[in-house]
Amino acid sequence: MTRRKGIILVLTGAAFWGIGGTVAKKLFQQYGIDVDWLVSTRLLIAGILLLTIQFFGKDRSQILGVWKTKNIAIRLILFGLFGMLAVQYTYMAAIKHGNAAIATLLQYLAPVMIIIFLLLRKQTVFTRKDMLTILLTLVGSFFLLTNGSLSQLSVPPLAIVWGVLSGVSLAFYTLYAVPLLKQFDSLVIVGWAMIIGGFALSFIHPPWQIDYKSLTLEVYLYLLFVIIFGTMIAFWFYIESLQSLLPKESSILGSIEPLAAVLTTVFWLKEYFGIFQWVGTICIITMIFILAFNKDSVDHQS
Fold this sequence. Notes:
Elements: H1 2-31, H2 35-57, H3 61-65, H4 70-97, H5 100-107, H6 110-120, H7 128-146, H8 157-176, H9 178-181, H10 186-202, H11 217-241, H12 247-253, H13 256-267, H14 275-292, H15 296-300
């Protein structure tokens, strides 16, 4: 039951993350919302909400307790800056320069990065399933970025750079959080990480530097979805899943995010997707199902 709960959490969180990315693209494209402002605002608000839930619903002593040990405090700050903030900013930048579908599919190079990292650390055994994962990811990424043409990219270079960096950030985010979660509730870790990341980015673009009166009701509703569902719930559920799933499993199951992003990008935003880009998408989604419904990975990772 614990494992099943973890799977449901990561799938739900990842789906919200994918849809939230598409909504963010609409905010950038149609309403001219600034990336820096959106990232700092969504992180600060979502982080405060998560700590509020912890205060009223769980062990409130952990909220300040996480800062009492120097090593844990330093690790939390690093997680907030190079995990939470890095994932958020690179992902949003990739969406701005490309679209939510491209950004999320590139972000899910993370499972391959995690597998390679664990292999280098000799913490996992290379299996045929891992080889298939890497092959599907590489083939899928090739078709996604080129639409089958060797002579040109079908995706803006900046979108590719930010997307790959997003994958690196997600791999770091997934692995680095595990020791913290063994000592503190996920609400505390994710909440503080969001506040740290949002506070740091506020020096570049403070949340209050925007003309709130000029925003329409539609914009406020989109912002509310991005902050509550696409940020708070998405990250909380994803990090909570690490309590009952391996990091490699969470990152793989979380790959359902590209499916949500692709479908909403194509059918809601009406953005063009070439035939070979669909082939690439299918390769990456196939990777998800091969790994998500096979528990052998548990037996191969120490």
